[in-house]
């Protein structure tokens, strides 16, 4: 297929991924069965999927009850993910970089050494004010909240606070103007430097739709448009269309089928 020929003809590969990649890997924010299994109290109250909790204001105990379970499941699972492992294998020894709107750390956890996550990472947390540009590893606060989580109520009693000011904290992800991107900024600079290197570039965009097109989809199109010889392969089950002015291939399929 053309995708394989283009991959074989490339020297460098930028993998640009949206939520569709992690959903195909088993971390689907619309999965109602998994939600009912993990969050029985929220399910009894009428909620049906994780995407409904994004930005939903909750009392602190419910907030950290939900987020400790969610982050432990999606970010701190130590097992390798077969789909991400397969993607890494397909890229092979080619010089590569990953750009993702996902905040689950799955690229780094599955063998990708160079990754920029401009939307943040569940693996860190920050002050909600914020009183400082500093961020901290979140594993300890997630584990502490999880240890006090009661599935029957959906609440956790160990509520974390800012190490500096004692105020509320949240995960270091882009949900509003309080987001502190400083920890991830060096990865963005490294990507810009990497893009200036030699060799024919292939951008493989996976599962990036129109929920946040300004993070992955549109910047990728602009990048390919601006770099002589660059090509784009867009793998997307629902939104595979590509602009007519790009040297681009639209693959309307599930990424698991393509990589298989």
Automatic annotation (TrEMBL):
Binding site for Zn(2+): 127, 131, 162, 165
PROSITE patterns the UniProt entry points to: SIRTUIN (PS50305)
Residue ranges annotated for the Deacetylase sirtuin-type domain, each copy included: 1-260
Keyword Phosphoprotein carried by entry: no
SUPFAM superfamilies per UniProt: DHS-like NAD/FAD-binding domain
GO function terms (MF aspect): metal ion binding; transferase activity
Gene3D superfamilies: SIR2/SIRT2 'Small Domain, TPP-binding domain
Swiss-Prot/TrEMBL keywords: Metal-binding, NAD, Transferase, Zinc
InterPro entries xrefs: DHS-like_NAD/FAD-binding_dom, Sirtuin_cat_small_dom_sf, Ssirtuin_cat_dom
TM helices/strands, residue ranges: none
Positions in coiled-coil regions: none
Name by which UniProt lists this protein: NAD-dependent protein deacetylase of SIR2 family
Gene source species: Lentzea alba
């Amino acid at each position: 297929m053309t995708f394989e020929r283009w991959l074989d003809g490339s020297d460098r590969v930028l993998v640009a991924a949206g939520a569709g990649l992690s959903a195909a890997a088993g971390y689907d924010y619309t999965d109602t069965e998994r939600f009912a299994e993990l969050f029985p109290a929220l399910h009894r109250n009428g909620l049906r999927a994780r995407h409904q909790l994004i930005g939903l204001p909750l009392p602190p105990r419910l907030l950290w009850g939900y987020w400790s379970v969610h982050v432990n499941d999606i970010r701190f699972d130590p097992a390798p993910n077969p789909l991400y492992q397969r993607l890494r294998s397909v890229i092979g020894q080619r010089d590569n970089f990953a750009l993702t709107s996902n905040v689950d750390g799955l690229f780094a956890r599955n063998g990708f050494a160079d990754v920029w996550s401009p939307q943040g990472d569940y693996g860190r947390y920050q002050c909600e004010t914020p009183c400082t540009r500093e961020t901290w590893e979140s594993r300890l606060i997630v584990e502490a909240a999880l240890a006090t989580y009661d599935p029957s109520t959906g609440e956790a009693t160990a509520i974390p606070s800012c190490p500096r000011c004692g105020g509320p904290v949240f995960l270091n992800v882009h949900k509003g103007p309080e987001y502190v991107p400083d920890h991830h900024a060096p990865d963005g600079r490294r990507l810009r430097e990497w893009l200036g290197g030699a060799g024919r570039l292939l951008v493989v965009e996976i599962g990036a739709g129109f929920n946040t097109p300004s993070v992955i989809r549109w910047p990728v199109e602009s990048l390919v448009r601006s770099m002589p010889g660059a090509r784009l392969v867009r793998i997307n089950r629902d939104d595979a269309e590509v602009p007519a002015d790009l040297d681009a291939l639209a693959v309307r399929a599930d990424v698991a089928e393509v990589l298989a």
